[in-house]
Amino acid sequence: MTATILNLPSLYEPFSTEAKWQKFWEDNQVYKADSNKNGKPYCIVIPPPNVTGSLHMGHAFESALIDVLVRYHRMQGRNTLWLPGTDHASIAVHTMLEKQLKTEGKTRYELGRDQFLERAWQWKAESEGTIVNQLRRLGVSADWSRERFTLDEGLSKAVVEAFTRLYDEGLIYRGEYLVNWCPASQSAVSDVEVENQEVNGNLWHFRYPLTDGSGSVEVATTRPETMLGDTAVAVNPNDDRYKHLIGKTVTLPILQREIPIIGDEFVDPTFGTGCVKVTPAHDLNDFDMGKRHNLPLINIMNKDGTLNANAGEFQGQDRFVARKNVVSRLEADGVLVKIEDYKHTVPYSDRGKVPIEPLLSTQWFVKIRPLADKTLEFLDQQNSPQFVPQRWTKVYRDWLVKLKDWCISRQLWWGHQIPAWYAVSETDGQITDNTPFVVAKSEAEAWEKAKSQFGENVKLEQDPDVLDTWFSSGLWPFSTLGWPEQTQDLTTYYPTTTLVTGFDIIFFWVARMTMMGGHFTGKMPFQTVYIHGLVLDEKGQKMSKTKGNGIDPLLLIDKYGTDALRYTLVKEVAGAGQDIRLEYDRKKDESPSVEASRNFANKLWNAARFVMMNLGTGHGDTESPFPASPRPPVPASSQSLELSDRWILSRYHQVIKQTSNYIDTYGLGEAAKGLYEFIWGDFCDQYIELVKSRLQPDAEPASRRVAQQTLAYVLEGILKLLHPFMPHITEEIWQSLTQQPTDSPQTLALQLYPQVDANLIDLAVEEQFELLIDTIRTIRNLRAEADVKPGVKVTANLQTESEKERQILTAGQIYIQDLAKVETLTITDKQNNQSVAAKKPQNGLKIIGLTILGIVLARLGFAVGNTIYQTAIIGTFFEMVGFLYTGWFVTQNLLNAEARQKLWKQFFQGTESQQAQEPENAIAGVIGTIQVVIPLSGVVDIEVVRAKLEKSLTKAEAEIQSLSARLSNPNFVGKARADVVQGARDALAEAEKQAEILRARLRGLGL
Questions:
Q1: What is the tens place of the pLDDT at every residue in 981-1003?
Q2: DSSP-derived secondary structure letter, 316
Q3: In three state form, how does the secondary structure of 31-67 look?
Q4: Which positions make up the binding site for ATP?
Q5: Distance (Å, rounded) from C-alpha 775 to C-alpha 768?
Q6: How many CB atoms are closer than 10 A to CB 910?
Q7: CA distance 305 to 308
Q8: Which residues are part of a known binding site?
Q9: Can you state the angle between helices 813-820 and 803-811, rounded to 10 degrees?
Q10: pTM higher than the cut 0.85
């Protein structure tokens, strides 16, 4: 297959490759879902980004996680749909347009609703492609033919249907309630639109005189202007300081209104003075307290943040101007006690960027308890939906328990206009809090209802407000599939399988989707909620616009490629739901972690090029080992597989099992890391190096072919395993590897994910190879430590008392010699010093010649000895010398037991032999119970090696001293956990062993 390499350049260029495959996938509708297709459905709906937005690191992270899941399940053969879309971003668009109008000296009211909406739709048409096109650059495998927008016709129909049903069921009402009010935009805002900011403020203390003249009570507040709306003072009924005052009244300063002192356990006796002013119309907690005690509601504020007639002399003043003036008046009246500096949290409107004002307002609300209680039943009785990580279940449940009625109306124009029409003819042509209304699915239906109630002359005006964006978003999982119609998509893909989202919107979006889904469909809208963490900056801080510490994902994509960024974001996840920290150099706009992923892509690319260059039969022949197959075949039978083949196949199928298990349990980061270790370590650094000699032209043909098939088989499997994480580079390589036709190629994205073949998993072989690889690694490390040049081959002696280890080392000695560049390898039994020396094979003719020469020399020696012996005088002399030496040898070595033992060791155990002596000037290392010794004479500069050994010995001795001191301390041994103490003992034993070995090596160097 050497011709194939023409399609795979020497350098991987991610940018053109990624653009090419993104276009191919979309042009060929590779990811278009078919609701009539066989296969178990797998559906994810995208958390819809704002149409106003641009890609930020949170989008990139979330989309990468979703795409891994979707691609994996698609390759598992499931009927997969990833449904994309965008949210109309009511607040963001409205605010942006009002800013534009302000620069033109206009307001939306001057422009009028129709023209304002025309501008909004025009702006949406121009800008909506920004975020969508950026998501496409991430290579997400979404079905763009099903892309939805929360204001499109189908979803708008679903919103109207949901609203009218809830209203008819008594679950939507219009009423007066305390809401978060933004004076800048003059609209109610939801909790999620409120940003709490810590500010340096003040705490004002002042006295309220008891009406009976018997004294006064002191209160403290951060908003003194609201005292104009006070309707009570509250104390804790268990507070001995004040409980005798409950039932009495005080006179409100300035306005001289008499208000009661009430007892309520909500009051914290430790806060301030233990007495609190109660302003039900301007504080949510006070509002609840007011309902419990039937207190009147006095609103002192207009919607623009100025004070109204209920504020008396301060009417018309801005709330902050009035604050100063109220304090001055209290001081003048002699009731101001003190002013303290006070740091506290103030809620700001994310829309208007001003402090929000709790304001009594007539709005539309959803009765939340019936919906929340039904959702709690699903959770408690069916554990539906399941949260990953599971700890978020309690957070979700607690939120559902505490939910209060949901204000769904917003005083905006961009969004879903509330489907309610007011009979303004009944209230002098104005919409007031008391104007009667009808709720209908259309204006025609509203006229019919209104005429039947108010007569033919009724005049109608639709509610000008729009619905909270979260109302339409709450319908997203089923409205996008066609609800309220019972479409085939809805039947097939609902409930969706998994929701992937951040923890920060569990309350605002996830809970609303489950409540809406449970109510309208009778099912939870998703089976599993996978909660991911945040992408933190290089300092471990949350990225935010306020801090200005965001990292632009597009910049990193332009520098390193999409696959590199995707893989980094997923690989960094250490456990489901954990935050990740992204390395980043702001001065250079570089990321070491993303660069490492790009290097990984290059490593894979180069490995693939090597494999494909060696898949031919050699000698210029371009025949492939699988010319007629769309994919590489399973390698030859186990009888023809060599040890390294069996090892890589076993490791490969173990990795299939490991990766699938991790993804199935949302361990996406662990899956990515496992693939990295297998591809870079086992396949590239080990197996490819092991089989290089088998790929040479003069290698044994059968062995070469098995190596080729194994390389091709494992490489193709790697591409499939890695595809969900790095789709572009894997598609590019796979197309070349499998020789796909250019006119009608298949795509890797639609191939089946690798399946585990248990018959190819051999744990014994993996155990053997782990020992061999550790040995190779140790020899390589020793070579590096001794500064042995890469091209220089060494002699190595492996010593172990384990027969099993010796067998493994002997079986794999060729791998050790090849990968560690060892010329002569000796495997020695440390106990009896029996050894086997292995030397690289020599030329066959040399071996034969040396054998013949040895025989000739032996024959010549026997001939000379025989001639000498047959000479009369000389022969007799040699017989006499031999007799005397024999007698001396027996006397000295055999008659005494100690002498016999010494002789036994000398001749049979070899402790004094040259073979057993550790050579001087050597370096050694240890793998388990195996000692590796490499003689260095003539190979390296001994003095340099000696200096390194002395440094290591100093470090080991310092560790021994430290550990010994800890273990001699009774407090440590007696109080620390047993496993910690044992760990210290084990570490001390290991350090002492290392020190002993280092000293022996230094002695070997002659020190």
A1: 888 898 999 899 888 878 877 77
A2: T
A3: CCCCCCCCCCEEEEECCCCECCCCCCHHHHHHHHHHH
A4: 545
A5: 11
A6: 17
A7: 9
A8: 545
A9: 60
A10: no
